[in-house]
Amino acid sequence: MSSRTLPLLFINLGGEMLYILDQRLRAQNIPADKAKKVMNDIITTMFNKKFLEELFKPQELYSKKALRTVFDRLAHASIMRLNQASMDKLYDLMTMAFKYQVLLCPRPKDILLVSFNHMDAIKDFVKDTPTILSQVDETYRQLIEMYTPLSHGEFQLIRQTLLIFFQDMHIRVSIFLKDKVQNSNGRFVLPTSGPVPHGTQVPSLIRIFSCTGEELSRQQFNNGGNYNAALREGSFEIFGDRVTKLGTNMYSVSRPVETHMSGTSKSSAQHTKVNAAPNPLAKEELNLLARLMGGLEVQKPGNTDSGFRVNLFATDEEEEEALISRPDELSYGVINIQATKDLQANAELAKIMGEFTESGDQSPGASSKGDDLLAMMDGL
Amino acid sequence: MYHKEKSIQIKNSASALYNNLGVLRIAPRRLTYFTVVHANVVNMVSASWDGLNYSHRQLQSKEPNVATSTSLIMQAAFCALPSRDLLVVTSQKGIQMYESDGSIMVYWHALDTPETPTEQAVFARGISAAWENYICVGVSSGAILVFDVPSKGSNITLSEVLEEHKESITDMASECSGSQECIANLVTADDGGSLCVWKSGEEFQLLNKIPGFDMSCSSVKLWKGTVVAGYGTGQIRLYEAVTGILHAEVNAHARWIYSLDIAPFSGLLLSAAEDSLVRVWLLTMTPETNSVEVAHLHNECVTDTQICGAKFCDGDGYAFAVTGYDLSEIIRYVQS
C-alpha cells in the first residue's frame, strides 16, 4: 500500500533490537569495550549511507521472511554471534514491541514520534563516536524531510500497511504480560481511558447549528470510557520532547526477556496457510533484497578470540529447547529455494556471495561468511 | 437496547482498512452475505437467517502476472442496483466486479500502475452504486471512475472520469433513503476531508464541494439530502448536501473513525472507531425547519479491538455486525 513504510519499519525494529541486545550484553556481563564495539558496529551498519539510500526509495514492504534476512545480517554485523533460537526470539520481541507501539499510537502521525524516540536512544548509544553520530544525524534529517510533510491520511495509510505486516502476530512477551499491556491470549490491551490524541476532543458533545451557523443546542452523551483532554504535541524536530513514551527503552530496568511460544491462536496457523503464495520469495523481492544487502557493509570479524555468542535465553539448554519446540506456524519459514540456482539467476546476489567467499577470515566456530549467508538464504 | 448474538467465524482476521465490512441482505432466499478483507483476500460468508447454515468463499485480488508482488485489497463492497447486485473489490492493481455471490468475475479494470513504485501510492478505494445503472469507484489520485452497468451480462464500460478531488478518495455513498425528491444522489470523500456532492447521469454534475479541515474523512453516508461524515479526529459532522450548511457536529469517538452506516427506514446511525467503540445514534430530520436532531442511543465496546467495519444488517437497524483488526469473527448485535 504505502510506498513509504519500509524506513519506519526498519528503524523502529532496529531500535528495539538494539535495546534488547544492550540488555543481554549487560546481563551476560560482556566486557564494556566489546559490548560497545558490538553496538557501534551494528549502528554504523544500520545507518550506512548506501543502505539508507536503498531503504528510503519508494517501495512496497518486504515480506516478514525477507525482512528477517536483513535483520539476521544486521545482528551479525559485528563480533557477536547468535544461534538460530536466539535470533528467532530476538525477532519475535522486536516485532511484538513495534506492533504494540503502532497499535497504541493515539494518532497515526505519532508513529513518527515513536521513531524519534528510537532515534534519540540510538544517538545516545553512539554519543562518544563522532563518525557514527553524524550518520545518525543524517538519518534524522532524511526522516524529517520525508515524513513531516505527510498528511494525517497518508500516515494512516502507512499505519494500515504496518498493521497488515503485523497481522495475526500474538506472541506473548513476558514484560508486556507483567505490565498488563498484553492479555494472556496475546492481544494487546486497548484502554478506553486516558488522554485523547492531539487534535481530538473528549467524546461527549453533540452540537446542533442553525442555517446561519449559530449554535442552537448542545448536549452531552455518555461515552462509556474515562477520557481526559489531549496532552501537548510532541516535537518532530531533531531535538525535542517527544511526549509519548512509546518507543523508549522498556528494558532499562533489568528484566528477563522471555517469550511464550504456546497459546498461539488457530487463526495464525490459518493465516500462514492462506498466505503461502506459490512463489514465496518472488524474483522481485530477491532483487530488492540484493540491492539492500549490497549496501549492508559488514565488518570482517576479528580473530576468533574477540568473537563471542550472545544468548537470549537464561541458559544454553533453554536455547536448545526453544529451537526444538518452536511451533511450525511460528517458524520464519523454511522455503525450499535452491539458493545456488536462484543466485545464478540473480547476478547481484551472486556478486554479494562472491564478496564474502574472498575474505579469508573465518567467523568463530562457524563456516565461512559466504556459507553463513547461504545458510541464511536457505533457511528463509 | 442491543445485545450480542452468536458471532460468525471467518477464515482470516480482518485487516485494518476503512469500512471493512460488506453486507447484502437477500430477502427472497433468507440469507445475508458478509465480506471482510484480509490483505489480498476477501472472505465471504453466506449466513442463513435461521442461523443454521454458513458457507464460506474466498476471493483473491487479481494479479496481472505471477512474478509481481501481491496486490493488497483496499475495500470490498456490495452495490445494489435496481436490476442486479454486484460485489466490487478494489485493490492496488485495479477493480474487480463479481456477481453478488462471488461466483463469477464479470469485469476487471486495471489501474495505471507505474513500473517502479512512486512516492504517492496507487490504489482504488471508495465504492458506491449511483442511481440506476452506475457504479463509482475512487482512486488514490483523487479521480472517480464511473462505470455504466447493464442490467445483465459483463458489458460494463467506463463511462466517465470525475476529477474534482485532489487527495486520495477514502469513501463514497449514494442517497439511501429511496426518496425520489433528493437532487443529490452521490457523495464522495477524500483524505483531506473534502466532500463532493454529485447528481448522477450520463454526465455527472458536481452540485457542491464542502471543504475539509486538513483531516481525513474516512467514512461517509448520504441520507435524505444530508451528508453524514466521519473523520480521523473522531468527529462526525452532518451537512446539508446541496448547500454545505453544517447542521451538527458530534465529538463522537476518541480515535479515528473507521466506519459509518445508516439504517434508511429508521434513521439510526452506526459509528465505529479505533477506540473499540460502536455507537448507535438516532437522526431526526424536520424538513419544515430544515433542521436535524442527533440523539445518542447506545454504546457497545469490543474490548481490546480496533474496529474496522460496522454495518446494519437490515433497513430498520434491527441488527448490526462488526469487524475488528486481527479478529477472525463477525460480531453481531440484535435489538433486545
UniProtKB/TrEMBL annotation, chain A:
GO-annotated cellular components: cytoplasm; plasma membrane
Xref: Pfam families: Oscp1
UniProt superkingdom: Eukaryota
InterPro entries with a match to the protein in the record: OSCP1
Designated name of the protein: Organic solute carrier partner 1
Organism of origin: Acanthochromis polyacanthus
Automatic annotation (TrEMBL), chain B:
Sequence ranges assigned to domain WD repeat-containing protein 54 beta-propeller in this UniProt record: 1-333
BP GO terms, sorted: cilium assembly
Superkingdom of this protein's organism: Eukaryota
GO cellular component: centriole; ciliary basal body
Pfam family, one: WDR54
WD repeat placement: 250-281
Keywords: Repeat, WD repeat
InterPro entries xrefs: WD40/YVTN_repeat-like_dom_sf, WD40_repeat_dom_sf, WD40_rpt, WDR54_beta_prop, WDR55/POC1
Name of the protein described by the UniProt record: WD repeat domain 54
Source organism: Acanthochromis polyacanthus (spiny chromis)
